[in-house]
Amino acid sequence: MSKVWFVTGSSRGLGRNFVEAALSRGDKVAATARTTGSLDELVAAHGDAVLPLELDVTDKAAVFDSIKRAKEHFGRLDVIVNNAGYAMIGAIEELTEQQLRDQLEANVFGAVWVIQAALPHLREQRSGHIIQLSSAAGLIAMPLGGAYHVSKWALEALNESLAQEVADFGIKVTVVEPGGFATKDGKNPDPLANGHMAETNPIYDGLRRRIAGIAGKQPAGDPAAAAQALLKIVDSDNPPLRVLFGQGFYPMLQQVYADRLKTWADWQDLSAEAHGNLDQENR
Questions:
Q1: Is 257 a catalytic residue?
Q2: Domains of the chain with CATH codes
Q3: Fewest CB atoms less than 10 Å from the CB: which of 77, 112, 139, 155?
């Protein structure tokens, strides 16, 4: 049976590939973008199977209206893909308050509004699958990515809680954690693209060059292949809560998690001291 999708950030990149993959197999898609002109080719190719919706996910009222329109248009919603977002790169000292707030508004609050708008419909159906695009940056943290990491780590926790809250309604949740994908000009995103303090700082500038080198060595994945992988996830009877897309960051993630466990183990004696023994003292 064909599925009905609601996808944010459908104009380009992974979101666009997700939409095209769903449509190519006969599914229907409510595709959102900040400007619907970017969706004209999809409409021309797939006609009534596409519902183009202009949407800025930071506009809560617009999110609820778009979900309502999609449900009324197609009669149901099966797959909700929270894909819209962007990465603010810069040292924490460099961030302005507005930059940090904008990052969280787009990446976190936008996702929350979509979830809150869709859940009543999914609960009524007692079915549905929420796909949250996170990142390898939601699992590890690197210099100059503080704002972006905050947003993605928040989404990881949000959706882990959500999965437990909605499981008994028959609703599934999967957090997709891509590494680098060739979503712009065939290259990974440039970590030197924004940020910077007014005064040149050799330490931060050195970090920029280091992170640029790391990012440049990561293999850029194929968005079309990622889209086919997503189809397998939404068709699965038992999809994962978390799944990595791409292999570039996997060895790094293994090391980071091993280091965390070792650190906790190394400091267990201090952890016990911090706990104290109130039960014995109160006897």
A1: no
A2: 4-250 (3.40.50.720)
A3: 112
